[in-house]
């Protein structure tokens, strides 16, 4: 074993499974149950989504209410703005507002298209930042913190293309698939081949799979083999149809990704 391999091994094995706090993990599962589809939940619904027993759910929710991260309205519960303080620390610590945002905005204006920066959150892709495009009358309804499929979006496949084979195999095998449109690929081996293509060519493109009439294009921030974040755009199919149009948007995206990489943005 080389010195580097030993260091990596030590870093990966610095704790044991028995060191993990199961109660804290359950609390995080409760927080994760709330999303755009289920912003308000009853105790029973939280229990169903988290697969925790009612007594445990009740104690965890009471604790979260007491600390101000969850509020109760009638029989339902929802997250409070205080939850944003957790993500805010990440955003400020990584210069998202002062470094990343201006870069995204500048290249977004050049393309007249919104650019999103995303990373992996376990089984999904999550938006870390989005450009602000002045005068834009098109929005796809996603915000910072929105979660996307890893398997059926350009951003997701590019993120997977940048991970090691064992990670990719696990997500392709166990990740959820949904027929978002008639063109959504539901064949896992075919999705794996699409990920390999993205890794080989350095970008991912998905048309009509996640949303009918929309093409997604994504590139890695850094090396296609090791990038922790990617940037991408979504546009009507006609905008990215044809080699010349696609090459233009791809070139601008890659320039944006290179500039972000040079800032040493940490994901």
From TrEMBL:
Protein keywords: DNA-binding, Transcription, Transcription regulation
Signal peptide: none
Keyword Transcription regulation: yes
GO molecular function terms attached to this record: DNA binding; DNA-binding transcription factor activity
One Pfam family linked to the record: IclR_C
IclR-ED domain location: 82-266
InterPro entries xrefs: GAF-like_dom_sf (IPR029016), HTH_MetabolicPath_Reg (IPR050707), Tscrpt_reg_IclR_C (IPR014757), Tscrpt_reg_IclR_N (IPR005471), WH-like_DNA-bd_sf (IPR036388), WH_DNA-bd_sf (IPR036390)
GO terms (BP aspect): negative regulation of DNA-templated transcription
Highest taxon, organism lineage: Bacteria
Ranges for domain HTH iclR-type: 21-81
Keyword check for Cell membrane: no
Name of the protein described by the UniProt record: IclR family transcriptional regulator
Species of origin: Antarcticimicrobium sediminis
Source organism phylogeny: Bacteria, Pseudomonadati, Pseudomonadota, Alphaproteobacteria, Rhodobacterales
């Amino acid at each position: 074993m080389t010195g580097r391999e030993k260091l990596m091994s030590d870093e990966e094995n610095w704790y044991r499974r028995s060191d993990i706090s199961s109660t804290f993990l359950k609390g995080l599962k409760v927080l994760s149950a709330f999303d755009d589809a289920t912003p308000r939940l009853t105790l029973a619904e939280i229990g169903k989504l988290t697969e925790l027993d009612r007594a445990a759910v009740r104690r965890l929710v009471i604790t979260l209410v007491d600390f101000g991260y969850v509020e109760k309205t009638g029989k339902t519960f929802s997250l409070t703005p205080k939850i944003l303080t957790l993500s805010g620390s990440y955003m400020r610590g990584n210069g998202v507002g002062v470094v990343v945002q201006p870069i995204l905005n500048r290249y977004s204006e050049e393309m007249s298209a919104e650019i999103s920066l995303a990373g992996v959150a376990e089984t999904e892709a999550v938006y870390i930042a989005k450009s602000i495009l002045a005068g834009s009358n098109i929005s796809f309804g996603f915000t910072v913190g929105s979660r996307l499929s890893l398997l059926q979006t350009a951003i997701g496949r590019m993120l997977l293309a940048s991970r090691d084979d064992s990670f990719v195999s696990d997500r392709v095998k166990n990740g959820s698939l949904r027929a978002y449109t008639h063109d959504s690929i539901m064949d896992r081996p075919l999705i794996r081949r699409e990920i390999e293509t993205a890794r080989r060519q350095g970008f991912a493109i998905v048309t009509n799979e996640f949303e009918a009439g929309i093409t997604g294009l994504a590139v890695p921030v850094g090396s296609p083999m090791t990038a922790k974040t990617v940037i991408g755009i979504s546009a009507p199919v006609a905008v990215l149809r044809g080699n010349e149009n696609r090459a233009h948007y791809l070139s601008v995206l890659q320039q944006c990704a290179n500039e972000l990489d040079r800032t040493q943005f940490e994901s």
